[in-house]
Design brief:
The protein is an alpha+beta fold. The protein is 26% helix and 31% strand. Keywords: DNA-binding, Transcription.
Length: 290
């Protein structure tokens, strides 16, 4: 007699033959843990923090259409926004306005209890009349599944809002924004800054990278472009600020984040002696934040 073994996806819990998860998601946390751990590099006199996922934007589709008007009438007003009769405005939206024309907007908070400490994600979800949806503000892979399950529960709890068999499909990470910091090893590192113009020149001249910098920008930072290791035509943006704060944005997977993280740390570490300088104004600025 042949023994059958049930294999389920460790992320969504479905049988593997029913699972639609991106296989890269299974190793997402492992890749970041193994490649993006902050250390104190005594040899190069620098220390840097672990990578931190600040937000992920997810796109997905519902398998059934939803009566968004009925859904709006059944949910608390303070958690949703929907005005199907409005016309598309010709006035450009203010930067930071998290809303889309003709979308049903819902804001929810989720807790990933598999993390220690727990990770809270304040998520803005946008549902469109054609069944497509987008969610921003997610901080962990597990939160994606928590969000999708809770969203289905909310929608199906409203009678006649949709088909009871509704589910989600084509769930994809559209964009990941992550960050970390790098500083020289010194008793009080707050006032130490990066020489951005020098670093930009090193990136361009020594590493043949596409990098720009303007000291006149509102938030002056080096904009470094690094080619994706997964999608040959896609470039990841690495924003490097004089305080040592670094943002990696535009990646869709952990491998690209790890590649960017290791590259920029390698560059700064190997040139650390000539890249850091002290600025009293920066120290005062950092102390105010504390």
């Amino acid at each position: 007699m042949i023994e059958t073994v049930e294999i389920t996806c460790e992320l969504c819990g479905n049988h593997t033959f029913l699972c639609n998860c991106d296989r890269n998601w299974v190793t997402f946390d492992k890749v970041l843990h193994e490649n993006c751990n902050g250390i104190t590099d005594i040899t190069n006199n620098v220390k840097y923090t672990d990578i931190s996922i600040s937000t992920m934007t997810i796109c997905f589709n519902f398998t059934k259409l939803i009566n968004l008007t009925l859904l709006k009438e059944s949910l608390p007003e303070n958690m949703i926004k929907y005005n199907p009769g409005c016309k598309k405005s010709k006035v450009q939206k203010k930067k930071g306005t998290d809303s889309f024309y003709n979308s049903f907007d819902i804001k929810l908070t989720f807790v990933d209890r598999k993390r220690e400490p727990f990770v809270f994600s304040n998520v803005s979800i946008f549902i469109f009349p054609n069944g497509r949806a987008k969610a921003a503000g997610i901080k962990t892979i597990n939160t994606i599944y928590i969000m999708l399950e809770e969203l289905i529960n909310i929608i199906t709890s409203v009678p006649d809002c949709t088909d009871p068999d509704i589910s989600t499909e084509n769930v994809k990470i559209q964009m990941i924004c992550s960050d970390f910091k790098i500083k020289p090893i010194i008793e009080n590192p707050d006032g130490w800054c990066l020489k951005q113009e020098d670093l930009k020149n090193i990136l361009v001249n020594e590493y043949s990278k596409s990098a720009t910098f303007s000291a006149l920008s509102r938030y002056p930072g080096i904009n470094l472009k690094i080619q994706s290791t997964i999608e040959p035509l896609k470039q990841i943006s690495v924003l490097i600020f004089r305080s040592g704060s670094i943002i990696i944005t535009g990646a869709k997977n952990a491998s690209d984040i790890a590649n960017c993280y290791q590259f920029i740390i390698g560059v700064i570490s190997s040139h650390s002696v000539k890249l850091f300088y002290y600025d009293i104004n920066e120290e005062l600025k950092q102390k105010k934040k504390k």
